[in-house]
Amino acid sequence: MKITGARVIVCSPGRNFVTLKIETDEGLAGIGDATLNGRELAVASYLADHVVPCLIGRDAHRIEVLWQYLYRGAYWRRGPVTMAAIAAVDTALWDIKAKAAGMPLYQLLGGASRQGVMVYGHANGRDIPETVDAVLRHREQGFRAIRAQSGVPGIQKVYGVPREGQRAYEPADGELPSEHDWDTGKYLRHTPELFAAVREAVGPDIHLLHDVHHRLTPIEAARLGKALEPCDLFWIEDATPAEDPAAFRLIRQHTTTPLAVGEVFNSIWDCKQLIEERLIDYIRATVVHAGGITHLRRIADLAALHQVRTGCHGATDLSPVCMGAALHFDTWVPNFGIQEYMPHSAETDAVFPHAYAFADGFLHPGEAPGHGVEIDEALAAKYPYRRAYLPVNRLAHDGTLWHW
Question: For burial by CB atoms within 10 Å, which of 152, 193, 291, 399 has the most?
């Protein structure tokens, strides 16, 4: 089966997405997500100008060879732009191969390891009472696992909390990066109070999660983990900047609260030390940013050897194409932990019709051949790209740039 064409589709049905569509001489086509939040056009250019010309005429079934060709052949390996582009090709080729086989992708990977994929939703509030209400609403919707984020008294803008009257908390369309302030002391005092209130409201059977968003030093993260132990969290995510794996040793010495990290990782080399030294409990690398299904399987296999489970990033900065692929991966992978799930907007769902569905706290990938997600190109064309940036963060007391 020869690749006859490939094109990059950039659209913005509520936010920006980059999609690669690969076509073959047997009439089958597959799509892959290549979205890199805030740097979308960099990946679009990498694909259109450098990758697509190398695909024409090649055998669509030789997924491994094409992965190695794009990774080893570029010389400039890894990095978010390169790996997102490789992931788009890889995901589209797996989509084609599963369609050719007439089966859902998880069957081609080896079959289902579970009946459904447990997901966690995002409960956000401007203060503790509002956050507790949001957690209770998610429980009523059937979620068994819920991430809680709250505004902090004395901090004007906090990650995970939308601006008043808005649904999304990032990014801001058409603007230069917005600026948030940060005060570690206020956050460390407030967060244990938040989770004490949430745990009291929902009882012991709901899984609770929290995203620190890389903002703490290792010893500060250790203090937070220890303070949250009575609340029995499922995990704290991104407790300290992910590029310093040795920092997690210090956190581990002081707390038994489970640790998750990896949504910014691009390859197995980024998480090798964290996994081999058992410094984390969940690896959050995802299909689009970690080189596609082919490479994410290698990360999961390494993690399984060290009793680390998966917890793929799944926010709306990834398109439904990535979510569909992730759910087939989640359904198969033996060391699955949990899947993040933020529902996309109605506009996004219309552009990307999909087979996956939510029920009783679980997502199900569906039985459509391939990964079960398509793109309505005519509708996508009605939503042109709009420049958007992620925010930046500054320390409140002196304006020093901090981690966002």
Answer: 291
pLDDT range class, residue 171, cuts 50, 70, 90: low
CA angle 232, 235, 241 (to 5 degrees): 140
Using 50, 70 and 90 to split pLDDT, how confident is the model at 161?
confident
Q: What is the pLDDT of residue 160?
A: 73
Residues 332-366 pLDDT 10s? 999 999 999 999 999 999 999 999 999 999 999 99
Closest-CA residue to 109 (of 306, 381, 288, 365): 365
Domains and CATH numbers, the chain: 3-104 (3.30.390.10), 108-367 (3.20.20.120)
3-state secondary structure of 186: helix
Q: Which SS3 state, helix, strand or coil, does residue 36 take?
A: coil
Q: What is the dihedral of CA 241, 247, 253, 254, to 10 degrees?
A: -40
Residue 71 C-alpha from the chain's centroid: 22
Inter-residue contact 312 to 329 (CB < 8 Å): yes
Residue 244 burial by Cβ neighbours in a 10 Å radius (0-12, 13-18, 19+): exposed
